Amino acid sequence: MSRLARARLRDLGIVTGDLPTGPHNAITDVAGVTVGYRSLIADEPHVVRTGVTAIWPRGPSTWSDAVYAGGFSFNGNGEMTGMAWLAEQGLLASPIGITSTHSVGAVHEAICRLAVRDGGPSEWMLPVVAETYDGWLSDRAAFAITPQIAIEAFDSASDTPPAEGNVGGGTGMICHEFKGGTGTASRVVAAEDGAWTVGALVQANYGIRAALRFAGAPVGRAIGYETVPSPFAIRRDAGSIIVILATDAPLLPIQCQRLARRATTGLAWVGGYGGNGSGDIFLAFATGNHLGDARRTTDVRMAAPEALSPLFQAAAEATEEAILNALVAADTMTGFAGHSAQAIPLDLLKQAVLGST
Length: 357
What we know:
With 357 residues, this protein is an alpha+beta fold. The protein contains eight helices and 14 strands.
């Protein structure tokens, strides 16, 4: 067991990437973005370790002030609803939910109910709800997430720095055979490149131990199975990761799609390679335009193509650090059928990366 309290990556003295972070190193550094959670941890009547993460691109005004958005599926053994219409129109006018695999329907219904309750202007909804599988630690047959529980997650959203580790949809997740979960980070591009912010929030539930790297160091190989056993009898490449990227840059939908693809780079830096059984699905939205209620034309801005490379770097760096934050924040958890997932030992992690404890 680690002798150090759970922390964020930079609290350990480990720094990744070259760009500066936003004030809180979180997706909520993008103005207007709010995040909420509902975590369920119970042993009766069912053993559940699950939850819901809620992301509002513009807080309560999301219903009436749509953002441009685009998605990318790196490996498609997973679900993110609403993607067909998002690819068609490129607009997102509802909050985003992230949960467990068998809870997508309940969260989908919750967003529709919220739209009715809050007087959303659209007569119909095709919400974006994504999932990763927590069945190792949580009884998937319990169907513990209800629409009301999901509504509570959306109603709890705020612009304060999000919690990380075993929270929300990330409650029961496993990453690189250590306890995983929810993580976030942000980057700010230089003033001459627009001074825009890119924030990432991940639900990390993927990967094999041997591939795990922190700041380039082969941490997964340094912390072997004799030190921290794997939660799986057969080591696997299955699992999933959901990445949500937010930026205040004025991007068009196709530019959002391009930004979403760059989450792949950050995932690869940590050690993800999109195994056959993994659902690695990413979405990026941009708040830099306000479309208003014009029925015929509306004026929008577009970041110049030459301005995109710094944003791409920011997306990759924020994704990488968000995954690492999920790992270092997560606590050891025991759940369904006595299964457990061990937190990565922070003292051994520091030794592997920095040569010290």
